[in-house]
Amino acid sequence: MDKTGPLSGKISGKNRPFAEIVTDARYAVFSVMRTRSAAQGTFNYWVLGSGFFVSTKIFLTCAHVLMSPATPHVDGDTYKLISTTRTTRTVWQVENAVVGNNIRLFPDSDLALLTVDGGESRSYLPLEYGDVQVGTEIGVAGYPIPNVPTVNGNIVLDGYVHGFRSYKIEEKMETAATHLTLPAGMSNSYILSNSAVYSIGIGMGRVRTHLEQLGVTL
Question: Is residue 86 within 8 Å of 159, Cβ to Cβ?
């Protein structure tokens, strides 16, 4: 299994063709899957949503992705971060995930941060903390919820397809995902504009503070 994409470090969004940014973003945007041990050596699993790396070790998603009332996080869960391109599949694991240790939850901002070991050369994305302006044409990159069966006790990941949707912002908003009709699984997808200004699908007012508390300066 490939562990890195062809890029490493921060993916630039400055003075580059929009199509190039869209292509490169695939190496930092991942689907989030949870697995949990069950009786008699079996396990349960859920495909939860999307997120992306904001440094080589910090992965950002929505709090509601991990804490859905129907399937909330339980300390000790394992999270698989999965990305797929035409030629590679990359899977990173967060094992024995514990809130306050390798998971930080900020429900007031609908923000969750996972610390992922290894991967010093991981690709990650820049953030823009401002509002998405009315009239902006944006693209949304993430992973719609796929069909993920098991065969002989193994999870089959062939159904994963990286998604991209185009929208035009019609009204002022702090968080674009609140106002867009997105496929299930893409509520915290990476949002980018054709002027290479980035935002994400959660309220940005407190995000900078939370990231800087973990030593992530963007």
Answer: no
- Decide the pairing of beta strands 9-10 and 123-124: parallel
- Cα(48)–Cα(170) distance, rounded to whole angstroms? 28
> What span, in angstroms and rounded, lies between the C-alpha atoms of 55 and 216?
7
pLDDT in tens, 11-25: 876 677 777 777 788
* Total-model pTM: 0.78
- CA 12, CA 54: separation in Å to the nearest integer? 12
Q: What span, in angstroms and rounded, lies between the C-alpha atoms of 150 and 26?
A: 25
Domains of the chain, earliest start first: 16-213 (2.40.10.120)
Q: Which residues of the chain have pLDDT under 50?
A: 1-4, 175-180, 194-205
Both tokens of 214, joined, read 């973990």
**Structure letter (DSSP) for residue 147:** P
CA distances (Å), 208 to each of 109, 123, 195, 214, in order?
11, 20, 22, 10
Q: Determine the pLDDT at residue 155.
A: 72
Q: What span, in angstroms and rounded, lies between the C-alpha atoms of 128 and 200? A: 8
